[in-house]
Amino acid sequence: MAVFDVAGTTARDGGLVVEAFENAMVSMGVTRGTPEMDQMVNYVNATMGERKIDVFLHLCDGDSVRANQAHDFFVESYIGLVKSGKLQEFDGVTKLFDELRENGIAVGITTGFPRDILDSVISGLNWAQHIDFSVAASEVVEGRPSPDMIFRCIVLYNKQFESHISAEDIAVIGDTESDMRAGVTAGAHIIAGVSTGTHSPEKLLRAGATHVLDGAVNILSIC
Question: What pTM, to 2 d.p., does this model score?
Answer without folding.
Answer: 0.91
